[in-house]
Specification:
With about 180 residues, this protein is of the alpha+beta class. Helix content is about 30%, strand content about 20%. The chain has a 4-stranded antiparallel beta sheet with strand order 1-8-3-6, with no helix packed on it.
Length: about 180
């Protein structure tokens, strides 16, 4: 038990400090009167053993820390992308597109939209410029939702008047190979 405590204390010393201490002690041993064979003090031998053991301990700790990284979010196989015409009368719910865990649904207001898109979690909120998120033409927003159908969009002027000819471009990465959704 006492030996384990000494080894633990020796391991707390940095490797460069242990080497410097070993060299200092070995020089002290070399200054001893010549008697033939060089005998290293027990402290030097203990330090050399601690240095060797700490190398193994470091490798062991690094092996314990190794993580099998497969990418998070996991890499995907494909993507879904489409342009959706927005109902000019009252806005609309986006179509059902599954969004895999860790992925985001990206919504871009089409560059040629004659009005702004307003995004919200319900039809009523999307149609109200005071409760929705505005997207100017070519502007982008992304959401980490489970399905695109959780989002509602209306095409409105800045004054809140519904406007025809607005489109939302959607894209999301997909997993098809046994990675689940």
């Amino acid at each position: 038990m006492a030996g384990d405590q000494k080894a633990g204390a020796a391991l707390a010393i940095s490797i460069p400090a242990a080497i410097a201490a070993a060299l200092a002690l070995s020089k002290k041993a070399q200054a001893a009167p010549p008697g033939g064979e060089l005998v290293l003090p027990k402290e030097v031998i203990d330090l050399i053993i601690a240095i060797a053991a700490s190398g193994d301990a470091i490798e062991k700790k690094l092996a314990e820390l190794a993580i099998d990284v497969k990418g998070w979010p996991a890499n995907t196989d494909s993507m879904t992308g489409l342009r959706v015409a927005i109902n000019p009368a009252a806005g609309m719910q986006l179509p059902s597109i599954l969004v895999p865990s860790g992925m985001t649904l990206v919504i871009k207001a089409w560059a040629l939209n004659p009005a702004w898109l307003f995004v919200g979690p319900s039809l009523g909120e999307a149609g109200n410029i005071n409760q929705s998120f505005p997207l100017l033409p070519s502007e982008v927003v992304s959401y980490q939702v489970e399905n695109a159908d959780q989002i509602y969009i209306a095409g409105l002027t800045a004054g809140g008047v519904p406007t025809a000819g607005c489109f939302a471009c959607l894209t999301v990465e997909q997993r098809r190979r046994g990675g689940g959704i």
